[in-house]
Amino acid sequence: MKNLQDEIKSAFVSFSDAWKTEQATITNELDKSSEDYLASYMRLVSLNAWREHLLSGILSKGSLEFFFEAQNDALVSHVFARQGAWRSALQSLRACIEDVVFGLYYKDHPVELAQWQIGRHKPSCVKLLEYLAANPLFVGINGATTGLAALSAEYSTLSRAVHGGESFRMTAGGGSTNLWSSAKSSLGAWLTRERHTICALNLVLLTMFREHLDGMKLPVLRKAVSLAVPPAKHAQVKQDLHIVLFKP
User: Fold this and answer.
1) What confidence tens digit (pLDDT) does each residue in 200-222 have?
2) Less Cβ around it within 10 Å: N or C end of the chain?
3) Percentage above 70 pLDDT, the chain
4) CA dist 163 to 34, 94, 101, Å?
């Protein structure tokens, strides 16, 4: 038994040294795409702006905590992507969606929130997305404007990453473990999912809280949102939600 433990300890040291060296190499390679990561970070600023400039003043502590965790999830996704841990990055992006959706639901359901806190309320994110779609604030608004359809589609796609769908596996075709990768195709795939997800989340939040942003209200928040919602959607947002966004 002692010999086996010594062998495992030796393997542990070798493994630790190897992944740290590989991680540094992968990160340095991905740093060549710093402009892509900067664009991602600019989009993520919108989530912080929502929390600081509006939600912290109108939500209960329990509901707001979901949004804080969602912001953290998005940053974790960004950092994993900087390291080339693509599947983990996508899993964190999915968690971001869940926390925003749960926060929106529980802001109107304090009893269910209290039940959730003791483990007695366990709704699925899919069901809560359906709940939002039936919310009067979303009914009758162009689906492309509310972001709900796009968010549901992204959640479905990201769920395949969580459950190890073949196209999302880090080990696909390699025959060995693979913690990191600097593949441009993987970076591009993550950027697409991240861009679509953060845009959809912002559109959902604009729809839900539009009374707080119409006209010239909360300009700092609207500027941050403008970095996450493409200019091509700004006119539709103004028409359907009466919110003016800014050209980046």
Assistant:
1) 999 999 999 999 998 889 999 99
2) N
3) 94
4) 29, 11, 20
Is 104 within 8 Å of 89 (Cβ atoms)?
no
Q: Encode burial over 141-171: b for 16+ CB neighbours within 10 A, e otherwise.
A: eeeebbbbebbbebbebbbebeeeeeebebe
Judge if pTM exceeds 0.85. Answer: yes
Domain span at residue 191?
A: 35-168+181-241
Residue 18, number of CB atoms within 10 A of its CB:
11
**Token pair for residue 143?**
């689906």
Beta carbons within 10 angstroms of residue 209's beta carbon: 19
Angle, helix 219-226 to helix 34-50, in steps of 10 degrees: 150
Give 33's DSSP letter.
Answer: G
Convert the pLDDT of each residue in 14-51 to its tens digit.
999 998 999 999 999 999 999 999 999 999 999 999 99
Look at residue 164 and tell me if it is in a domain. Answer: yes
175 lies in a domain?
no
